Amino acid sequence: MAMYNSDGSDAENHDDEAENEGQVLSAQQQKMKEILAKKGNQIIMGLLDSLSSKNKDDLEKTLNANTILLEFCDNDHCFGMLTNPEVLQKLV
What we know:
Blueprint: H1 14-20, H2 27-51, H3 59-73, H4 76-82, H5 85-91
Helix pairs in contact: 2-3
């Protein structure tokens, strides 16, 4: 039995994205895309809150948030979310 081994990159998703570029999303698909973007933003804001002065007592939560955000930096889509102007404004 062959096992799938990922190299850690998100390159395997680029083929699907290229195929779907010319397709129009249905109303349900557009709504789901908006919901996923909103949830992704909420997750990033929550992780950033774990690194902020709001979290003064939970070192483990801070370290976990730091690790997750570092992993997000390696993914092109997540990096785009992290460099969103709304997220960058929170860091100032």
